[in-house]
Every structure is written in C-alpha cells, then in structure tokens.
Amino acid sequence: MAKAKAEALELIKNLPDDVSTGTIMEELFFKQQVERGLTDVAEGRVLTHNELKERIGRWRKSVGR
C-alpha cells in the first residue's frame, strides 16, 4: 500500500499547481485503469482483434442494431 500512496503523491506532485480535485481524480483513475490493463495483458486476459469484432457483433445484434 505504501507504494501505491507514493505513486499517487508523485503523480499529483507533477500536476500543475492550479489543478482541480476532479482532474486529480481523473488522473488517478486513468493510472489505475492502465495498471489493470497491463496486469490483464501479463496474465493473458486479452482478446484478438477478430474476437473483439465478434463480441461486438453479437452485442449489437442483442440490442437490435
């Protein structure tokens, strides 16, 4: 947990002085999502382009598009 706090503080420190709380939250959320994505890739939880196209096609049919 100490590593996460240190990384968050470093991220905030590198933002402009007039940054809003909302922007800070957006940056932290973006960082979290990137880390989650990198973990997924490292653990093999990925789709090929064709697999994704198939899933989107099935989803679009299920919602009537």
Q: What oligomeric arrangement do these chains adopt?
A: single chain
- Characterize the main sheet: none
DSSP helix count?
3
Which regions are unreliable across 5 or more consecutive residues at pLDDT < 50? none
On the 0-100 scale, what is the average pLDDT?
Answer: 96
Which strand-content bin applies to the residues? under 5%
Briefly note the structural class of the backbone.
mainly alpha
User: Roughly how many Å is the radius of gyration?
Assistant: 18 Å
Order of helices and strands: HHH
The 3D shape can be described as elongated
Helices, strands, pairings?
Elements: H1 2-13, H2 21-42, H3 49-62
Task: Describe the 3D structure.
The chain is built from three helices and no strands. The chain is elongated and about 45 Å long. The termini are far apart. The protein has one domain. It has helices at residues 2-13, 21-42, 49-62. It is mostly helical and 65 residues long.
Core attributes:
mainly alpha
Brief characterization of the structure:
The chain is mainly α and about 60 residues long.
